[in-house]
Amino acid sequence: MSSGSDNASSASYLVAQICAAAGLTVVVQAAMGFQNAHEALAFYGVYHREPRNQVVHFFGVPGILWSMLIFMTHLPIPYLGKALEAHLPIDYAMTYGLVLTVVYLVFYLWIDPLGGTLYAPFLYAMYVSAVHLRRRDQKQQEQATSKKLSRWSGTGRLLWFALGLHVFSWYIQIHLGHKIYEGAQPAVMQSLGGALTVAPLFAFYEGLWLAGINKDLQNETLRLVDKYTIDLCSSGVEMRVCQTLGLE
Fold first, then answer.
1. Domain segments of the chain: what residues?
2. Given a cut of 70, is residue 149 above it in pLDDT?
3. Quick one: which of 37, 47, 146, 161 has the fewest CB in 10 Å?
4. Measured between alpha carbons, how far is 113 from 104 in angstroms, rounded to an integer?
5. Pair 115, 204: CB distance under 8 Å
6. Residues 167-170: contacts with CB within 8 Å, 24+ apart?
7. Residue 3 pLDDT > 50, yes or no?
């Protein structure tokens, strides 16, 4: 690789590290702001009352989280990731992706042990598949260049796939889900961290509630959703549901 390519690779690695650290910080800070499951789910549920929008998010939210994990599993925690690499059975085990997965798992188990336990296998599957895809992509890059980990981004194809999935998942939620179906701004406009933190559990619970699981939590969440909706409509926030409820 030329020195120019090395410099470009180093610069991209630094930018990626900053983005990963910022994203992890946003999620951690938001998680610390929620005290219980119905409060967290109601915050997100206010902007997702329309059934068609809920269906869009049921598929879009996992796409966002999985693409984030694919990106973050490319990036070891500075110093810590390298220091542990020689003592762990997998390369770059201490990545931002692993830490993000643990943060989600601990947060969900804390606010809702049942939901967190049921969601854990799905979260683990997303993480493991992200690691598997990253390893395979970097192995392909090594074989092509005959150099071990010559670029942190591997062939680059996997990262482009993750970026495309991430952008597409956001698009269908914001345009199709919120603008067309819901007629309300997305929760991310109120709190990026809150939306990223709660969305996976909310989307998962849509399936659990449909199956009749933890209906008490659903009833308490819906009660708070109604309360928060009235408060938002009274404060002048434009939402289609305000017209439906006669609150404008």
1. 3-214
2. no
3. 146
4. 12
5. yes
6. 168/63, 169/60, 169/61, 169/63, 169/64, 169/67, 170/60, 170/64
7. no
